[in-house]
Amino acid sequence: MKNKNIKTLGRKSAGLIARLYELGKVVFTIKDVVEITGLNYFSAGRFISELKQRKIISTLKKGKHIIIPQELGSIDSFIGNWYVVAREITNSPYYYVAFYSAMKYWGMTTYPIVKMFIATPKRQFPPKTLDDKVIFIYINKKNIWGVKNEWVTRTERVNISDIDKTIIDALAHPKYCGGITEIAKGIWLAKNKIDFDRLLKYIQKYDKHVVAKRLGYILEILDIGGTRIAKELRKYIKNRYDLFDPTVEEKVVDKNSWRLVDNIGKEQIQKIVST
Prior knowledge:
Structural class: alpha+beta
Distance between the termini: 47 Å
Mean pLDDT: 88
Strand content: 5-15%
Strand order of the largest sheet: 1-3-2
Number of domains: 3
Number of helices: 12
Helix content: 40-55%
Order of helices and strands: HHEHHEEHEHEEEEHHHHHEEEH
Low-confidence stretches: 1-7
Radius of gyration: 23 Å
Shape: elongated
C-alpha cells in the first residue's frame, strides 16, 4: 500500500506528466517544468525533488530527468530507453551509438543490452549514476560517418552507426563488441541486410589494412559476400601479419592467405554461426 501511495499522482504532477508526454518529452529539464507549470525556477526545483522522492521521475544527469512509467511500480532507478539516454547524456552533437550497442539495434546479437557504447569526438565521462551502464569511446571526428538518425521510439530519434559502419568499427575495435567470434556471428545474422558495395566503400574510406583483412577472412569462412568483394579486400594484404582477434590469447591456431595470425580457428566461428 505504501508504494501505491508513493506513486499516486496529484493534479499538479499529473498535469505536468501529461503535458510532457504530449510534447514527446520523456526526458525533460527544469526549464520545461517552469514553462508548463508556471512555477518560478526555485519552486520548480523543489517540485522536481518531490517527484524524485515519490519515484515519479528519475535523474539521468544533472539538469536532465526522465519520467518513470507508472506501470513499472516503485523502483530506485530507471533510465528508460537506452538509446534516448545515450543521446541525452552526450555533450556533443557529433555522437553516435556504436559497437555492441549498434550491433544490438541492427539485430546482430541476441544478447540484451547491459552497457551502452557511445562514440564521440569529445572526451567525457558518464554521470555517476550511469558509470556502470555507459561507456564513451573517443573517436576522431574524421571517422564519424556512416551514421543514421534512427527512430528508437515513436517520438525519439538517435544517431546510430549504420550496419556497414558498425561492422567497420567492430573489426577495428573488437574489444568493444565481444571479440571476433561475436562479430562474425553478428555479420552472419545480418548478412541479408548488409550492403556489400557500401561496405567495400567504407573499407576504402577507413583505409586500415587489418580491418579489410579481418573482414575478408570472416566473409571467406562464412562463404558470403562473393568473389568480387573478396578480390577487392585482398588488395589490402601486405607482407605484415596481423592478429585476427586481439581480445584473446595470442596463440597460433593457423596462419592463412589473408596474412592473419588466426588465434581462434575457423572451425570455432563456423560452429558458433551454425548454432
